[in-house]
Fold:
Amino acid sequence: MEDLISLIRKRRTIRQFQPAEVPLDILFKLTDLGRLAPSASNLQPLEFLVVTEKELRKQVFSCLRWAAYINPAGDPKPEQEPTAYIIILVNTQIRTKGFEYDIGAAAENIILGGLSAGLGCCWLISVDRDRLQPVLKVPETLKIDSVIALGYPAEQPVAEEYSGSVKYWKDETGCLHVPKRSLKDVSHLNFYGQKFPDSLKV
Structure:
């Protein structure tokens, strides 16, 4: 359990990547982790499209919007773009609504699996789906939901204590700072507003 906790604590969204390619066998394993995620009623409406080809990656990149709070500073530089993508698709012949929870579980599996393999990930929902769908030859019976960008990280964002704003920001060195609400603020014991003992530590 300790290894999993450490992995979750280490996870940060990565938007700057090294040029090294991600091995195909790792990407294949990550799609399997997405497949194994919980699914409401076990309907399993999700499918996963992996993009590795360089010219195709450029087309995917052009359909994405990055880091709205600090745009354009949050956009990957040309030499630091992702080297792979996993597109999460929904088969609308299986389910037309209520699949959002499945997507969240699958995406987190993929992201944590990627982190365990030394990869950084950015889960993007600001996607030009109408433009991307024909580029990837996705049939009309499937819906593009979101995109996970992957690669070996070229940055080390840091989490810090929330102090009135959730907006992430970059300092003068280019380091990304990500505010997180405190555990005390978001956790309750038995009744809302009743807190865990101060003696407990994470």
In short: The chain has a mean pLDDT of 94. Residues 157-202 form a domain with the putative fmn-dependent nitroreductase like fold fold (CATH 2.20.180). Helices lie at 2-10, 24-35, 54-61, 100-116, 129-135, 183-186. Strands lie at 46-51, 84-91, 120-124, 142-151, 158-161, 169-170, 176-180.
